[in-house]
Write a structure and sequence with these properties.
Length: 75
């Protein structure tokens, strides 16, 4: 019984991570309006919530958010 519960718990975690990743991909694609694989400062300025986090998320200070940098965004 414990193994069954553990298996279901693991399956739930995998599904949850997949759904979260899918949501991030969709949101990233929506914000990357020029489809260049990055969210520019100009694109981020379209929403104040994203703009406030932009500087913190831009690890390499190139005024672009990669998908990896965007994955740290707090909704």
């Amino acid at each position: 019984m414990k193994q069954l519960i553990a298996a279901f718990s693991l399956m739930f975690l995998v599904i949850s991570a997949t759904v979260l990743a899918s949501q991030l991909n969709v949101k990233f694609a929506q914000l990357d309006t020029d489809s260049d694989g990055q969210i520019s400062l100009f694109e981020a300025k379209q929403n104040n919530t994203r703009l406030k986090q932009f500087t913190d998320l831009d690890d390499n200070n190139d005024e672009q958010l990669s998908e990896q940098e965007f994955a740290k965004f707090k909704f």
